[in-house]
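Before the break, one more example. Copy the sequence into your notebook; we will annotate it together after we see the structure.
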Amino acid sequence: MTQTLKHISFKNRDIDLAADLRLPDEFDESSNYAALVIVTPGSSVKEQVGAVYGEKLTARGFVTITFDASYQGQSGGKPRDLEDPAARVEDVRCAVDYLMTLPYVEANRVGVLGVCNGGGYAVNAAMTEHRLKAVGTVVAVNMGRAWRSTALDADAIVETLEEVGKQRTSEARGGKSRREPWIPNSMDEAKAAGITDPDTLDAVDFYANRRPSDTRTNRLLFHSNGALMGFDAFHLVGELLTQPLQVIVGGRLGTTFSFQDGKTLFERATNKEDFLIIDGAGHYDLYDKDEYVDQAIERLDGFYKDHLS
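Here is what the structure looks like once it is written out:
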């Protein structure tokens, strides 16, 4: 089978977003297709997790689109390396806008898939973007919950927010911007820092060894912490997320807490379809390891075909 990959762009207001559009085997522009927006993890670029799921779902007959977030990768926007939940959610809406311009995509057959932090953003977007008719998540993480939990207690959160304010003041007065790594840059660096947490090491292995990319900087603009601390991806899910929902998690628990976030999401949803546990899979195994990813794809394929037919 041969699918077609097109490098395209679309707008989020005045920002050009770099995207990959995949068309299925034996694509016929005069036909009508279901389409999926694939939302990537924090710091990830479209050639990484988005490409893995995009290729596999396009092979199942879907048109797929995955993109670099605003301010990151090959997409535009300044300041660089900003992780802005509001912009990330609007990126999803704008991807839907783009799909609506394609004559071969049926307007009522568009779904969304989010992986890791992208799962939280996908859900948050779908609550108010009802052109998305079906919502799937794989190891979804509520970015705000994750960020607040790293601060350990309320005092630490306040200290971080105060530090963000000081940094913004410094930059407003002409000072240098501050950027910090999302994760260690290499396994050697992680080991030198004494890191033994399996999830962190799995993340470094994925980004540095299994799926490296020259367009991923692994840098987070420090004042992103302010917006991240105040974000809750799943707030109002019980009221606004009315689309069918498929949640997929790894059976091996870890420090990303994606199993717990997935369970919270599923419990709050009113139109939940299925909660699938991939036995033996850790969080980052579901990024690119075929033995686990293919199980997720099999379930997602049936889910989207049921609800986007």
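The longest strand covers residues 105-115. The beta strands are 4-12, 15-23, 33-39, 63-67, 105-115, 135-138, 179-181, 219-221, 245-250, 272-278. Try to locate both features in your own notes.
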